[in-house]
Amino acid sequence: MSETPTLRLDKWLWQARFFKTRTLAAKMVGLGRVRVNATRVTKPATAVKIGDGLTFPQGDDVRIIEIAALGERRGPAPEAQGLYVDLAPEPDPAQTTAKPFVERGGARPTKKDRRAMDAVRRIGP
Hints:
- The chain is an alpha+beta fold.
- It has four helices and seven strands.
- The strands form two sheets. It has a five-stranded antiparallel β-sheet with strand order 3-2-5-6-7.
- A hairpin with a 2-residue loop joins strand 5 (about 55-60) and strand 6.
- Helix 1 packs across helix 2 (about 20-30).
- The mean pLDDT is about 90.
């Protein structure tokens, strides 16, 4: 009998470096924000295997990946990138909105400037 090797979902997400800690990965799964093969899962101990598709939010993006390998350890980033295939479409550069650069109005105020500002703000004598 040849069993297909499996790994806990939270552990795999941590090993693939999608989450900084395993606890954070387990929390995201527990909140129901991770889907395995288009099915929402809420148990961090859900078993995943090679070929499973995962969908989950990360920052402002939604990650769509396929598991390519099960990790042995949480290694360096190049090793972790070999654990999955990114299936998310490339973002359209025309639709990408960059945050506008806000230029500050000069250097920090000097001690004399701060005293003048405090004098203006001061209420009463």
